[in-house]
Design goal:
Layout: E1 2-5, E2 7-8, H1 15-27, E3 33-34, H2 35-44, E4 47-54, E5 60-66
Length: about 70
């Protein structure tokens, strides 16, 4: 499975992430996540081998396999 996602960096805080968190929480109850947070979320749902593929823009392709 592949998901196109704005993945937050662990080492370089991005203020856009906080703003997007507020928008997503107000509209859908969701939030932006870092790569390790996304991996934990996918793995808790039965997926494994979660990897992130960097793109030229702010979005990242998150790829995972079903268990």
């Amino acid at each position: 499975m592949r998901v196109i996602e704005n993945v937050l960096s662990d080492d370089q805080p991005d203020p856009r992430g906080r703003i997007l968190d507020l928008i997503m929480m107000a509209n859908t109850g969701g939030r932006e996540r870092t790569q390790p947070q996304l991996a934990a979320l996918f793995e808790s749902s039965g997926f494994h081998d979660v990897t992130g593929i960097q793109t030229a823009g702010p979005m990242r392709i998150v790829e995972t396999s079903a268990a």
